[in-house]
Amino acid sequence: MEIHKTTWPMRILVFVLFAYLLAPVLLVFPLSFSGDQVLRFPPTFWSTRWYEALFANSQMLKAFWTSLSLAAIVTALSIVIAVPAAYVMTRLKFLGRDLLFNLFTAPLLLPTIVLGLAILIVFASFGLLATMQGLVFAHLVVTLPYALRVLAVSLSTQDRACEEAARTLGAKPLTVFFRVTVPMLTPGIVAAAALCFLVSFDEVVITLFLTGPRISTLPVELYNYVYNQADPLVAAASALLILLTLGVIMVVERAMGLGKAFVK
Amino acid sequence: MPVSSAPEEHLRLQNIGVSFGNVNVIPSLDLSVRKGEMVAFLGPSGCGKTTTLRIIAGLNTPSRGHIVVGGRDITRLPIHDRDIGMVFQSYALFPHMNVSRNVQFGLQMRNVSGREAEERAGRALEMVQLSHLAHRKPKELSGGQQQRVALARALVIQPSILLLDEPLSNLDAKLRDEMRVQIRALQQESGITAVFVTHDQVEALSMCDRVVVMRNGHVEQFGTPTEVYERPATAFVANFVGRTNKLKGKIGSDGVLSAAGQQLHSATTVAPGAVEVLVRPHRIHLQGQAGDTREADNKVKGTVSGLTFVGDLVQYGVRVGDDEIVVEEATRRERRPVGVGDSVVLGWSAEDTLVYPGGGQ
Amino acid sequence: MSAAATLPRQWRNGELAVMLLLPIALINAIGFILPVLNLARYSFNKSRIGGGIENVFTWDNWAGLLSDPFYLELVFNSVWISLAITLTTLVVSYPIALYLHRSTGSWRTFLTVLVISPLLTSAVVRTYGWIAILVDDGPVVSAIKAVGLPAPSLMFNIKGVFIGLTEILMPYMILALMAGFGRLDPRVEEAARTLGATPSRTFLKVILPLTLPGIALGCLLCFVLAVSSFITPKLMGGGRVFLLATEIYDQAIVTLNWPLASTLSILVLIVFGAALWAYSAVLRRLD
Ligand SMILES: Nc1ncnc2c1ncn2[C@@H]1O[C@H](COP(=O)(O)OP(=O)(O)OP(=O)(O)O)[C@@H](O)[C@H]1O
Ligand SMILES: [Mg+2]
């Protein structure tokens, strides 16, 4: 392995590139404790004033709760809809199955700017603009493909013999599904749920087309805020968002760790 | 199709055929298993053992034919109504339930009350000596322990038939020996009819009442271990079960068998033409040893070309014309030593000379 | 056959299966297929001033688009800038991917998490981070000034968009490259070195060719994402950077000219198709 001793120039290069990659995310944390009135780095003095301002900003708080409930509803619906769909698509062979699977995951390939516009035009005629139902539906269009993919992979790698064993022990198909298939799928469900939650919570482009003064999500509010003025308030919000994301990832990591234990 | 069944018959496969797509895996299979016996399916990889087992359990659907259990045609019966216990090669224990819950599952499906299910599961675990591990999860058990849980889970529902698909193939040699004895004892105790899939001939011969030797989806021979070993129905069976010497020979129009450059005697009669002559190594003896009184219908001269001690056996390689014949003799002290290059005479009886048609040329 | 056998009879008849697929099929049809078809239709409809459309067939949108130098330049700029960003992303991502490929154990896991974590952070947040870094009196400009060089303006022009977008696309590129590096057996490299190749020759003759499929995939992915990126150009361009995606948004929301926005969207999809075609052509050449 002599040859793979990484040389010092290479190490420095990789370090610099990593710094570039992580700079905007890392910068947000010190910036959120800025005491300055305007965006300035490094700040002239430290304070928690922007966190206070954030929690006093009723529009941001409202948007946060909208985002949270939206993401929760979308996640729950995604799982409820995608688990049976993934089950049928992995356990049943039928003509055009692959085609259907590709069709169901195709929304992932479409640029969100195009999808957002396309949904805007259709929703306008349905009267779904700036409504919670409209947002839920639009988010489902993008979260379902993720959920379907993750769950289909989990299901197709699941040991089929357990389902068969349950059948030979006298379990009817529905019983097998709820008592064997779904419990064994738990790690996949947790991963899919976390992914759906993050995608829905962070979604901004499609949502921008569908929100209005009546209803808005946190990413859209942040976008509007930055578009108009870039003060450290957004840094405080961003720091909290990153921590929330980390929390969700940790939930997944634990669930997936559990999953690995299952395989053994 | 009329369904009839002999008095002691328990499971019958009748003209079963299986195709996957347009591949005909099992052309036509007939088989009859008696009540309380343990039958082994023995055969090379891909010959259709697992498929046949899954057909019985209902996990695969035959494209034709009938499965009859206890006089009742169950071909169209859904899996969960079949009352057939199965032990999977991978054990297929439910990873999210502990050992006790795994064993109780089948009882719950039969609406056995909670307390009774617990008790019966407890007894089943006692039977396989795992009571102390009842609250462990399957992943916290060793391979042999998982195997026993799978066995208890299949037996606790008191199925009419027990199917085992290579249940010992994932265990190490020592554990395998132990489990063989245990499984056989449990089967005989409960008097359950069992079908045991294996490609290990020792397992099939030592554990089971009868052996089905399969090849390419059909039955080559169905008989007791002794029958299969001593009187193989085909050259394939003779080759597959136990080791054997193979000589090319022919039977003349006068009915005389010749092989290894001379005339041989055989108890079996085959139509004139090219034949294969098979003799098991331990049925051949070196003639002219002191105190050797065994009679030999066939005597063949050869030269010792190799010699190996295998514990209480000596294995000789003997060159006879173009053929190399392997001879196995028990090690005996008073024997006149035989070395490489010595001329010897091999002898064996007509009964041990198995002749099968074919063999080329 | 065995799959069907483990399912109940009514499933084999497909009724229950259809029922279980119905919700996702409906959402797909109403939220994806219908809107996209509708988009194609709109690109041949006439727009009314102040929003709405007239349901008449017309080539005007397409004709207008293809004859207007502003839009031709817009398309040309978008494609060109996206290509440049893609190449830059490749150059800055390759060393990280190679380093990651060669590292092992928990160090590798840690670095992989570092690469993925920006992916899970909102584009708004990361763009905001870049604004903080690149503003006129921010750390970068100050540093350049401190060295005594003339202060560049990095915000509200294409430079800022370039820097920010490159960083935002890096994780995608790194992951695609690493997937492609699976083919790169360290022993091949060692063999080349023991045969007397210098490190740079080993790289050019052995490593690079073996990793070309990963490079092609990463480039396709980043190009596609760059062409359709919207948040970063909008926030960092300060209204002075015009690209396809931002124009679609402006036409849809500000001007309310939905037919034109639709036409531009279809144009984006055509550019996608071209990129995909180029990608498969490259792959075929590689085989
Ligand atoms: N689902 C399937 N689709 C297509 N062919 C199959 C399927 N299952 C089994 N086969 C084929 O049927 C034949 C018999 O398979 P089977 O699993 O019964 O063999 P086996 O005797 O159990 O072999 P082994 O000892 O390797 O387990 C094989 O040729 C196999 O390739
Ligand atoms: Mg098998």
TrEMBL record, chain A:
Keywords: Cell inner membrane, Cell membrane, Membrane, Plasmid, Transmembrane, Transmembrane helix, Transport. CDD domains: TM_PBP2. Residues 64-252 form the ABC transmembrane type-1 domain. Coiled coil: none annotated. Its main location: membrane. One of its GO terms (biological process) is transmembrane transport. It is found in: Cell inner membrane; Cell membrane. It comes from the Bacteria. GO terms for cellular component: plasma membrane. It is a multi-pass membrane protein. Belongs to the binding-protein-dependent transport system permease family. This is Putrescine transport system permease protein PotI. It comes from Aminobacter aminovorans (Chelatobacter heintzii).
From TrEMBL, chain B:
One of its GO terms (biological process) is quaternary ammonium group transport. Residues 11-241 form the ABC transporter domain. SUPFAM superfamilies: MOP-like, P-loop containing nucleoside triphosphate hydrolases. Transmembrane segments: none annotated. Keywords: ATP-binding, Nucleotide-binding, Plasmid, Transport. One of its GO terms (molecular function) is transmembrane transporter activity. It holds the Pfam family TOBE_2. Gene3D superfamilies: 2.40.50.100, P-loop containing nucleotide triphosphate hydrolases. One of its GO terms (cellular component) is ATP-binding cassette (ABC) transporter complex. Belongs to the ABC transporter superfamily. This is Spermidine/putrescine ABC transporter ATPase.
UniProtKB/TrEMBL annotation, chain C:
Pfam families: BPD_transp_1. The keyword Transmembrane applies. The chain crosses the membrane at residues 16-37, 79-98, 110-133, 161-182, 203-231, 264-283. Residues 75-279 form the ABC transmembrane type-1 domain. Keywords: Cell membrane, Membrane, Transmembrane, Transmembrane helix, Transport. It is found in: Cell membrane. It comes from the Bacteria. The keyword Transmembrane applies. Gene3D superfamilies: MetI-like (1.10.3720.10). It is a multi-pass membrane protein. InterPro entries: MetI-like (IPR000515), MetI-like_sf (IPR035906). Belongs to the binding-protein-dependent transport system permease family. CysTW subfamily. This is Spermidine/putrescine transport system permease protein. It comes from Aminobacter ciceronei. The lineage of its organism: Bacteria, Pseudomonadati, Pseudomonadota, Alphaproteobacteria, Hyphomicrobiales.
